[in-house]
Amino acid sequence: MRYGILLLGIFFHWVMTFGQRSLIPVDFSEVVIEDSFWSPRLDKISSATLPACIEQTEEKTGRIRNFEKAASGTGQHEGIYYDDSDVYKALEAIAYSLRHHPDPVLQQKADAWIAKIAAAQQEDGYINTYYTLGGLEGRWQDMEKHEAYCAGHLIEAGVAYYQATGKDQLLEVARKMADHMDRTFRVAGQHWVPGHQEIELALVKLYRVTGNEKYLTLAQWFLDQRGHGYGKGKIWDEWKDPGYCQDAVPVKEAKEITGHAVRAMYMYTGAADIASLMGDASYLQAMQTIWEDVVYRNLYITGGIGSSGSNEGFSVDYDLPNENAYCETCASVGMVFWNKRMNLLTGDAKFIDVLERSLYNGALDGLSLTGDRFFYGNPLASNGQHARRAWYGTACCPSNIARLVASVGDYIYAFDQHDILINLFIGSRTIVPLEDGKVAIRQSGNYPWDGEIHLTVDPQQPQDFVIKMRVPGWLRNETTPGGLYHFVDTVEENIEILINGDNAGYKIEDGYLQLARTWNPGDKVVLKLPMPVRKIAARSEVVADAGRIALQKGPLVYTFEGIDNGGSVFDCYLPANLLIKSEFHPELLGGVNVLTLDGKSISGNEAGDGIDIRSKTLTAIPYFAWNNRGPGEMQVWMPTRIGALKIETAQ
Ligand code: FUB
Ligand code: ZN
Question: Which of 122, 343, 379, 465 could hold 126 in an S-S bridge, CB 3.0 to 4.6 Å?
Answer without folding.
Answer: 122
